[in-house]
Write a structure and sequence with these properties.
single chain, 443 residues, mainly alpha, MgtE N-terminal fold, CBS-domain, Tetracycline Repressor, domain 2, 3 domains, three-stranded mixed beta sheet, 20 helices, 6 strands, extended, transmembrane helix, monoatomic cation transmembrane transporter activity, transport, transmembrane
């Protein structure tokens, strides 16, 4: 499918004056594929392509677009186009895009909703973007706990929502009682009370649970969906496998983008000034850390002037510390994301990583020391860089464990900031160890 989307992108760019062919080709793709294609073309061509999309499909495509892409497109539309766009919006779609809309457009969309959808929106908007209560699916099979199997079977004759393999039972006040799997229902006698078939292993998700925790809970349940309830056990809706997969995909994408200091909502063809400003912040942070490392190098200027070989070998020390630290950092960030790291095992984990660092430090110190001796014919220089390698790899292991843990405690994403801090620490530690030992042993 990816190659077909690529063909659509090429088609949108090169056949911009053939609206009929563009419209026909886009009718063969899903909304998320078209959204991806639109985000992959320059803004002026994106606006032209938008004109060739059927009105009935536009809202679905807008919902699938990234936040920044959505904002840029909405700026190009006049009020009448926007009003038509939101004519059939439901609560789930509005919750998806509300952060990209000014208040006046949110109010416009709410006015065009029916009372039920407006209620769903008000129910979801009180939760943060990463909480399951915001993304509840309201299409589910609900029945009273007092009905019999025959009545439940008649309920199944209606349209069954996707990811449905059970009926949710409630009491008269709407409180969740339990769930009944279809396989038990099909095997039961028609006159049997449905409450006799309740699955005792069916758990619930509290509405204030994080999306990542909800996805983990659903995975462990082996079910396609789980009921979502509030603090009073009132059944609000459900969280299904489709939402869980979407959660995991977005988390993975966010982590990949954050390692470069970028937002997953960023548009590929965002205005140059906006993109430059966003990236410039992290370039500035990197520059500060680079100057900090340079300042420590400057303390050993006299040593470098007398032993030029130290300057030649400095990148080796920095590189070894950097790669060793990034390996540990990646392992710890993953452990934090999976909830594997606690106070109880942190000390043992730190001890293990220091032992790994010590072993690798010894091995590579010997190798690099021998190469340095062969290269410069100076055994003391080989000993200096060998000792510096050991110190830097040990510091990398220590920093790779402690930095992400401390950042996580401070509620700062370790995947976003950890690598910048780690690189600074290992560079400074490596340079100070290498040049300090060089000053002591070579001069």
């Amino acid at each position: 499918m990816q190659s077909q989307v690529t063909q659509l992108i090429e088609h949108l760019i090169h056949d911009e004056h053939s609206p009929n062919s563009i419209s026909q080709m886009m009718s063969e793709f899903s909304p998320d594929d078209i959204a991806l294609a639109l985000e992959s073309i320059p803004l002026d061509q994106r606006r032209q392509a938008w004109e060739n999309i059927k009105q009935a499909n536009r809202l679905d495509i807008l919902v699938e677009m990234r936040g920044e892409s959505r904002q840029l497109l909405l700026k190009e539309l006049d009020d009448s186009e926007i009003e038509n766009l939101f004519a059939d919006v439901d609560a789930a779609d509005l919750l998806e895009i509300t952060d990209s809309l000014p208040d006046r457009l949110v109010d416009l969309a709410l006015k065009q909703m029916d009372n039920k959808q407006r209620e769903y929106y008000q129910q979801g908007i009180v939760y943060e973007d990463d909480i399951v209560g915001r993304w509840i699916d309201h299409e589910l099979l609900i029945a009273s706990q007092s009905i019999r199997v025959a009545e439940a079977m008649r309920l199944l004759k209606k349209a069954t929502p996707n990811y449905t393999d059970m009926i949710y039972l409630v009491n008269r006040t709407g409180r969740w009682v339990g769930c009944v799997k279809f396989d038990k229902l099909f095997k039961a006698q028609e006159h049997e009370p449905i409450s006799n078939l309740i699955d005792e292993e069916c758990s619930v998700i509290q509405a204030d649970t994080s999306l990542s925790k909800a996805a983990e809970q659903l995975e462990k349940s082996t079910l396609s969906a789980l009921p979502v309830v509030d603090s009073n056990l009132i059944l609000l809706g459900r969280f299904h496998a489709g939402l869980a997969l979407e959660t995991l995909r977005l988390e993975n994408e966010a982590q990949q983008m954050s390692t470069a200091g970028l937002n997953e909502e960023s548009d590929l063809f965002a205005p140059v000034k906006r993109s430059a400003a966003t990236r410039g912040i992290w370039l500035g942070i990197n520059l500060l850390t680079a100057f900090l490392a340079s300042a420590f190098i400057g303390l050993f200027e006299a040593t470098l002037q007398q032993v030029v070989a130290l300057a030649v070998l400095m990148p080796v020390v920095a590189s070894m510390g950097g790669i060793a630290g990034s390996q540990t950092l990646t392992l710890i960030v993953r452990g934090l994301a999976l909830g594997q790291i606690t106070r109880s095992n942190l000390k043992s984990l730190l001890s293990k990583e220091l032992k790994v660092g010590w072993l690798n430090g010894i091995v590579w110190a010997i190798i690099i020391g021998l190469v340095t001796y062969w290269w410069f014919n100076n055994s003391m220089l080989g000993a200096v860089i060998g000792l510096a390698i050991i110190v830097n790899i040990l510091m990398a292991a220590l920093s790779g464990v402690l930095i992400p843990v401390l950042l996580d405690k401070l509620r700062i994403d370790p995947a976003l900031s950890g690598s910048v801090i780690l690189t600074t620490v290992t560079d400074i530690a490596g340079f100070v160890a290498f040049l300090g030992l060089g000053t002591l042993l070579l001069l």
